[in-house]
Design a protein that fits this description.
The chain has about 200 residues and is of the alpha/beta class. The chain is built from 6 helices and 9 strands. About 35% of the residues lie in helices and about 25% in strands. Helix 1 runs parallel beside helix 2 and helix 1 packs parallel to helix 6. The chain binds 5-O-phosphono-beta-D-ribofuranosylamine (GRF).
Length: about 200
């Protein structure tokens, strides 16, 4: 039986697109949740006949009501895995408690280096020669959860944020699809910070 996954997006949704293209292997994408309307990720969901829901923080009186609404929206799709694919929000306690060790994030840097919203820019500004991407389980911190997989990407002379990010995203999409496919087929065991997909 294929796993049910929900994908959370905030932007263009190219990672979502890669997941859509590989769907029906070990998973089905049963819903997409966005934090704002009108984004590419929602258009990609619609084109693939996947139901999309917008949970915009601007529509909620405070952070905790948005956190609860997000958890309810995700749970409404009854997923076994939740994939943050360019979702630029911190997942609050209600969703973390509803899906313990079942939420995956992709980050455009080699964690624990350069966490946060500007991982690509921060690596460039630091003068790093190698950066990359990390797929990890989500915990209560910002990009601090146990690492599932990483890939390195070189930074070249003359690179800017956009050129490095584009090069990362090519590798990131492939890695994310590989990890989600394997997780959905095989699950994983978590021992402290060490994660193993059997
Ligand atoms: C990805 O690089 C993700 O890691 C970062 O934002 C990008 C999202 O790209 N947080 P897309 O929306 O999947 O095209």
């Amino acid at each position: 039986m294929r796993a049910r996954i929900v994908v959370l997006v905030s932007g263009a949704g190219t990672n979502l697109h890669a997941l859509i293209e590989a769907a029906h292997t070990s998973y089905d994408i049963v819903g997409v949740v966005a934090d704002r309307a009108g984004i590419g990720g929602l258009r990609r969901a619609e084109a693939a006949d996947i139901p999309g829901v917008v949970i915009d923080p601007g529509s909620y009186p405070d952070r905790s009501s948005w956190d609860r609404a997000l958890a309810i929206a995700i749970a409404g799709f009854d997923p076994s895995w939740v994939i943050c694919a360019g979702f630029m929000r911190i997942i609050g306690a209600p969703a973390l408690e509803a899906f313990p060790l079942r939420i995956v994030n992709t980050h455009p840097a080699l964690l624990p280096a350069f966490p946060g919203a500007h991982g690509v820019r921060d690596a460039l500004d630091y003068g790093a020669k190698v950066t990359g991407c990390t797929v990890h389980l989500v915990d209560e911190g910002v990009d601090t959860g146990p690492v599932l997989a990483q890939r390195a990407v070189e930074i070249h002379e003359g690179d800017d944020e956009a050129s490095v990010h584009e090069r990362i995203k090519v590798v990131e999409r492939e890695l994310l699809v590989d990890i989600v496919t394997r997780l959905c087929a095989l699950g994983c065991t978590v021992d402290g910070r060490k994660v193993t997909i059997p």
